Structure formats: structure tokens, C-alpha cells
Amino acid sequence: MWMTALLAALGGAAVGLVVGLLGKLTRGAYPLIARITESPYKSALLGAFVGIMIASWHGFLRSPRRVDTAGPVAQITSAEQFRTDVLDAARPVVVDFFATWCGPCKMLSPTLEDLAWEYAGRVSFVKVDVDQLGDLSRQYNVQGVPTVVLIRGGQEVHRWVGVQPAGAYRQALGALGPQTKPQ
Q: Domains of the chain (ranges plus CATH)?
């Protein structure tokens, strides 16, 4: 992040310096530019500031998300995998029943990924595409997507339908006991 800010500042400073030098060459033909570019150094400082502002406005200075090729939320692709990864799991599992065409599902996905990182090692997070595994979604009576089901010991403990804030999931996970509290 600091490297992006530095590059934005240097790029802006270079543009400001050029504008400042050009301002000197115009010899006051454009009063506003002449005022801003009284000195190439002032222009460079202004350019650096503008470069950082543009970089931050475009979101280049945000903290990057964790990058993991496997991702924090595993995709369930078969009923057998669901049985072993969810029903037979030693720890609680949050199951996201979703569809690839569902807008709210896409909105919920980053929240669940962040929670998966937060609860790593204590709670597993998986997702099930209702179009690929229709029998499984019917078995769990999924009537709309997104539907998120918390399963512990093979039994449903909690269910959310629709997009919920992260706090709603944290509250249910915290109620499971101290072993699931985030660090």
C-alpha cells in the first residue's frame, strides 16, 4: 500500500513539475495556471498531493484482500463431499447455498470470505451451488438464495435467508461456545 502511495506521489509530482515548467513558459498567459505554478516545486508538491488523492479515490490504496488460490470458502461439488466435509466434520460448518446468477449471493460472498478468515481453524465455511446440487438444496428445504445454514455435529443449528450483516453470523457462532470465538 505504501508503495502505491509513493508511486502515485512520484507520478503526480512529475506531472506537477512538468505543468510548473510549462507554466513558466506561458509567462502568465493563463492566470490560474500561472498562480498555481508560481514555482515548479510548488507544482510538484501539488501534483504529489493530487496523485495520492486520485490513487485513494480509485481505491488503489485499500488494504489488499488476502490472496489464497484455494480460498477460505470451499466449494462442495457432490453429495458425498457434503457428507464428509459438513455432516461428518469435527467442527461447526457454515454452509452457503447460493446460485451463480444471484446478485445478493454475490454481495454476501465477501462477508463470508472475511468471516472464514476470521474463524479459520475453528469453523469451516463451504458453499453449495443450488443449481448443481438441487437434491441437496431440496433436502435442506432451501426456498431462496442466499440461504446460509450453520451445521454442528451433522445437525442444523441456525439458518439465515437473504443477505445478513457479519454481526448476525458472529452472534450465532459465538453462541456455540468459546472454541469458536474469533481471535
A: 2-57 (no CATH), 74-180 (3.40.30.10)
